[in-house]
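Recall that a protein's primary structure is simply its ordered list of amino acids. Everything else, from secondary elements to tertiary packing, is in principle encoded there. The following example makes that idea concrete.
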Amino acid sequence: MKKNSMSNKHKQGGKLSGIRRADPEFERERAKYDYPLPSREYILQVLAEQGVPVALERLCALLDVQPQELVDFGRRLGAMARDAQLLQNRRGDWLIPGKADLIRGRVEGHRDGFGFLVPDEGGADLFLAEKEMAKVLHGDRAIARVVGIDRKGRPEGKIVEVTERANSRVVGRVHQEHGVWFVVAENKRISQDILLAPPAKKSLKPANGQVVVVEIVEQPSKQSQPIGRIVEILGNYADPGMEIEIALRKHDLPFEFSKAVQAETKKLPDEVRKSDWKGREDLTQLPLVTIDGETAKDFDDAVYCARQGKGYRLVVAIADVSHYVSPGSALDKEAYDRGNSVYFPRRVIPMLPEKLSNGLCSLNPNVERLCMVCDMQLAGTGDIKRYRFYPAVMWSHARLTYTEVAAALYDKDAQARGKLGPLLPHLENLDALFRVLVKARQKRGAIDFETVETRMVFDDHGKIERIEPYERNDAHRLIEECMLAANVCASDFLKEREHPALYRIHEGPTPEKLVKLRDFLGTFGLSLGGGEEPHAKDYAKLIEKIQGRPDKQLLQTVMLRSLRQAIYSPDNVGHFGLAYESYTHFTSPIRRYPDLMIHRSIKSALAARRYEPGDWSDIGLHCSATERRADEATRDVEAWLKGYYMQDRIGEAFAGSISAVVPFGIFVALDDVFVEGLVHVSELGADYFHFDEAAHAMVGERTGRRFRLSDRVRVQLMRVDLEQNKIDFRLVPEAAKPPPAGVTNGGEAVRQRVPSRR
């Protein structure tokens, strides 16, 4: 209801009564509307006072709602119902869900047909039987009632009302049975088949087995299955690149720029203009260079280092995306929706159009580029003594790779050193500073878990030819330390000026996880220092202590899993893993929206203004969610590619190590091919095996045989299911003997991981 919309009605209805003026939010509502309706808070208050469901007529009387207000009042009640603040019972009476022992939450489906309602207010999940899940799809929001306890002792729920539908479009494969056409969703958490309505266009008639996108025209209910209409035919399941096309739609990743974004992008210049120099320092003569991977196309950062007495001057120049992407513009809204660039094998979904990401903003060599600079003075100990932020114009003097920098600095390759020419002394200064920063990192107590990174090598058809380990050399670590230093300065700058910001926070272990970790370590005669609130330094000391042990990988993995996931938040609680009291992301605004926001915040603070984009908490939640979405999508694609790669190797035997232990079996990571698959509990041997969560092991009831995290095993590939992204192994009997008592074989549990700059 807009301001003044009730003016004439107000004239008809006279002055507002004392009942209406008793609204605790009356002044707020009156500021918005000439003739304010009862606020949401007032409606909830009155219903709570009644203590029973209230009919609409009675509610109107209690709130003194006049006949001419009924339409608008009904809209307000409807909006509150959509937000799960109110509920109508079968009689049409209004009630507060919490008063009826009703629970609102989000539905999580399971591939086997059942599901759970995850309560908004926390507490135990409600088990939803297949019959209840027939009314909803994964991701829907609903209100449910507890109706009992299932056979596993879980509270069981019955759906009372679906408040929000999460799926408007679904990607899946078309099937035909007995003349009935339907789609099986690619997201296996959606277990219902989607019946197909006749297509709107003749061209949208797929062949059996093809991958399509359907628009849900009728959501599931107690009486009927979901019905969809095909809006796009993607092609055959095994077509090159299909795994990415599926992942984009399955995870609702924006991948096409709107016409408004394209129009704004077209208006941008192709190069830096003279007018852009205003208010900027000239760094074009400073020999800044970029150091990235061989395949990189978007260059966020450039570095330079010089000795200053016993200390150093470190200059980190970051692409000034905020100069071209204004708050509230179509480009900005699109960047926010995407949250980050997504890096699939052989394809990138950029946060910004390529004209910006690979062109105008990218710090390409031998061209003028706008940048935001963190200019730091560091002591010989690595401590940052002073820093300064300022906008500048730079000129990248070289586009270098990690490989050639490592060859020059660490392999002392004469050809590589000669190629660098006059840049070599600056890089040697960078390396000297890097050594100092590593020592400071160790002193600070930052956690540094050892991991094995891999990369996929593809053939001409876009399928994996081989998977090989990817060595992170000291050139990677050098750049990482420079970026960490700049990020710390950005955080400190905004914190000192009390300017709101999105911090990159990483909390320590929860009390529950800490207890489990200490109990587990105790079985090995080890302990974690720090009492009830350990610090990163305590973890680092323990990691150092276990070096050289055969069970190092097991211990390190369990320690890593005790920690929480890093997220974005305006509440600065520090970064546990890096051992920083304050940390934020500043160095990658081309590919991360939080970094772009930090740039705007710094610029605003420099100008004695405040950047106010909206609710910082909501923005932090959104950016954390888009990050997780990207991770899930890339994992899906990698899993499918690995499955496709392995399907021709069924029957082969492989050596590997146990990478995870779950109630239904063990996951094994293969040594040489870097692929992970499941040995189901039924394949572990002639025994009843039980999951020991505390010990991260499967234990045989009769034999006492144990399969523990990181144990060495030999397995045979039995099955590859591309539709469900499953790889199944069985143990090779003669190689699956239990280790001697008290001995755990070491091993490396490897995971595909995209190198990042924290």
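The CA atoms of residues 267 and 296 lie 26 Å apart. The first strand starts at residue 87 and ends at 88.
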